[in-house]
Write a structure and sequence with these properties.
The protein is built from 6 helices and 3 strands; from the N terminus they run H-E-H-H-E-E-H-H-H. It is mainly α and about 120 residues long.
Length: about 120
């Protein structure tokens, strides 16, 4: 699947699936009602749409994801950086950190991430 874009409501729906899968469609309806304030019909409409797009499956009333949360997050973040910062991760980070301070622990975690992904 190449297009992993989800609108905000679809992403929130998929978070419920990812956090609870596999789950019964009844449980999904209950969780969407509690978390999103959705009616049963809305939940089933979104589930049908996302199964048709290949994000989830509903097999014998058991709902599971077909796409990993990490893959959707990666796609969304890459699109955001490309669209908003012309693909420049340093420009994104500069804008993100503007006016913020990092703790020593956060700085160390970021340095470790950079070292892990740095080309050699």
């Amino acid at each position: 699947m190449n297009d992993l874009k989800l609108c905000e409501s679809d992403y929130r729906f998929m978070c419920i699936v990812w956090d609870n899968e596999p789950l019964s469609s009844k449980k999904l309806v209950d969780l969407c009602s509690e978390t999103l304030g959705w009616k049963k019909s809305t939940t089933y409409t979104v589930l049908k749409k996302l199964t048709e797009k290949g994000f989830a499956e509903n097999n014998a009333s058991v709902v599971s994801s077909l796409v990993r949360r990490e893959d959707v997050q990666k796609s969304a973040s890459e699109h955001f950086v490309e669209h908003t910062f012309k693909g420049s991760l340093p420009h994104f980070l500069a804008a993100f950190f503007r006016g913020k301070k990092l703790s020593e622990k956060e700085a160390a975690e970021l340095k470790a991430l950079i070292d892990e992904y740095k080309e050699v």
